[in-house]
Amino acid sequence: MRWWAAALGCVLAIGLVLVTPAEGRVRTDARAAVVPATGAVARVLDATGVEDYWTEDRMDSAVPLGLDENGEVITSPQPAAPRSSPRAAALTAPRSVGRLFFTNARKDYACSAAAVNTAEKNVIITAAHCVHGKPDPCPLLQPCVAAYFTNFLFVPRFANGSAPDGRWVGTRAITHQQWIANEDTEFDQALIEVAPRNGRNLVRVVGGNGLAWNYPVRQEDIRVWGWPAQAPYDGETVRRCTGNTSAFDGSGDAKIACPMTGGASGGPWFISMVNSDVGHIWAVTSRRTLDGPANVIAHPLGNSIRTLLDNARANRAVARTTTRALSRARITLRAVPQHVGRGQLLRLRSRTSANTRVVLEVRFTSGGVWHRVTVRRTGSDGIVEIKQRPARVGLRWYRVRTATALETVRVRVHPCPLPAERTAAVLDATACTQPAG
Question: What's the predicted TM-score (pTM) here?
Answer without folding.
Answer: 0.72
